[in-house]
Amino acid sequence: MAMHTVAENIGDVTEQHLAREDLPKRYLWRIWRLLENRGVCFQAWKVFSKFLLAEDDEKTLGLYRYRQHICQPSENLRHYLRPLESLAVDFVTHLNITGFCSFAENELLALARLKNLAILEIIQPADELRTIFPKVDDRLIRGWSEIEDPFPLLRILRLWGDEAVTQKSLQYVSSFPSLALYDVNASRSDWRGAADTARGEGWEMEEPLHGPQDTLLWYLMLFDFVEESKPRQLQGLARNIDDGLMNFCQSSNQPIKSIPSRDAPSFLDNLSDAAKRNLSMYVDVPGYEAQTCKGFPFETWAFWLYSFIGQFTNDEDLTRAGFETAQKTVSEQLVLPSKPLACLQLGHCGSARPGIIPAVSYVRRGLFATSRYTFFRTSSPSNRQMSARKTAELMKPTVQLGNVETGLNPNRKKRRRLDDILQSFIGS
């Protein structure tokens, strides 16, 4: 009875409740299993993942990855960003903004201050949705770059539109210290000579392949310096690899464990071995075609690319920020992101083709008037010039456990009642 009461009031449970030394961990696991059967809210995931991932019990992907899709967001952007904040970076965030979003430009400006934002996608929806969509242009990106210490942990930025972002944006995104991949869909006329501009800013440029070759593997190979035979071995099974990784993300029951970073298997080496076996490890998971948008693993592309970039760079962005990276989280032979990942998608992009990479939707000027461009940096972040942090940053107070803003209204009466319920566990 007590566990069910806690589950019903889980939105009011805080880190202080679970940090009590007299509360046996076995009760936390029992509450978590109950929540898994009922459906886990974000507040519950934040507090339980922090405590249970540190335990030696059997853990699953559901503790390490949280996914939520809000089809028609009706609040301002700050309403959705507030719970995603983690000043202590207990987790990193993947945010996908697409259709049915009417956020103002000044709201988008605040994204650069989200310290734990790791992947940002802003994808303009299809015309037929007839939706108001925030303008993403060079001015916004310049505004991001002018904020103190912008996007300190952002590794991946994807901006898909039609006419607003130009190659001038390259000079601005270059100031984001951790950014390794900048993926753009924009007007061809605004990106003439982009390869030369990119080289001048320290980027390399490729134009993604289309159709069946438009895969996650293509992005991974941008950062890979292996022998020539491996790409040929993998390319023929690229679509199967995509499906296998999507099926992996579909299930929250995949077992995970921590191992020393030095023992972590190479991500692409494992894909090569799995490809030879036709990915038999993961195709038996329920297919994603039959799932609703609420359960569709929209985060697959970002999840694996973020993990691979982390392995490729030895997580230098996290190390630079003062976080421990001596351990890696793996599921069998697949290396997961070095921090738990919270994924939020706002709206629908209108893509008729569900898949690991959505179809380009917004083509107001005509399909052949736009093109996709991918810019990537393979040099170590420690070797690139970094902006010096201001003295004021060093004077900021240290974040204390339990003080991370959650966006939930406090309710003291419920908190006292929950304390009483948790106390009952100790006496049982």
UniProtKB/TrEMBL annotation:
<protein>
    <recommendedName>
        <fullName>Cbs domain-containing protein</fullName>
    </recommendedName>
</protein>
